[in-house]
Design brief:
Radius of gyration: 21 Å
CATH architecture of the largest domain: Sandwich
Oligomer: single chain
Number of strands: 10
Helix content: 40-55%
CATH class of the largest domain: Mainly Beta
CATH topology of the largest domain: Jelly Rolls
Number of domains: 2
Length: about 325
Amino acid sequence: MRSSFDFTNVPQRTYEEWGDALRTYPWGTPKVPEPKTFTTLRSSLSTYGFELGATKHEYGPHHAYSVRREYEDVRFDKVDHYHVLFQAAGSATVIQNDQVTALAPGDTVLVDAGRPSLLVNSGGIQFDLVLPRHSLMSHVGLELQGGLHSPRGMGAGRALRQLIFDADEAGHLSDWANNQIQRVIYDLVAVLFEPKSNPTPIPDAVFKRVCDIIRDSHADPNLTPSVVAAEAGMSLRKLQALFTSRGSTCTAYIHSVRLEHAVFLLRRREFLRTQEFLSQISFRCGYRDHNYFVRVFRRKFGQSPSTYAKSHCDRL
């Protein structure tokens, strides 16, 4: 691995300094068992025009930390990129899009900064490659799903690691050559995290804007198709036609986004063993009436929220 990530001369960061760095990075909200004694090492540099960071801290339950990212964070910082996480030493767990990925040395996972996620790092060394969503999607022609784990041993994974970690000559490349390597990186990432089925095509700009409005406002219990149409600057009929042409409805999509967030909060609650009430979760997802939330959830998943959380906790 390149000497640029020699942690010898990297100053230790306190919990407050590290939290400030995560908020400007941005990533999410950190949480540690003992904030007063927590320290970590963090370094970053530019690789072929992409940011590559490295984090190192001691291994053990007293040094473990979690970083939570929710829709509130997405709305606040308006970041639109992917993280490719490489676990070099120690272990970590990533939860996103109902996927729970346990990382050991040599593992790689894709995290979508535009969706809620939870990272629990038990210690060791982790590298983080940041890729702009729009450029990646435009190049590969589809939207990659966060939370996907790359199978260990794939040739594309070895090639990506070698390309990223042996980039000492990157500063001597011309802009044209640098751009070509960026395209190679996009291709390797697409191969590593290819959707298992039904790849999501890039939506047209109008439909994407409508979906962004819903994702940004789904926690508002007053959100309705009429409100979405007004915010998007179109008629309700045109809004309905956008979803009908895709075999869905605006109301169904609103419920889908809310339930997706509910599943994330349920899994996080079970994983972290918090005492958050189901009524609090339903309210945070835009449902004033908890009983109605339970009915909608059961209709979608065939189980009540409490049963779903317990059954999926067994897989963590």
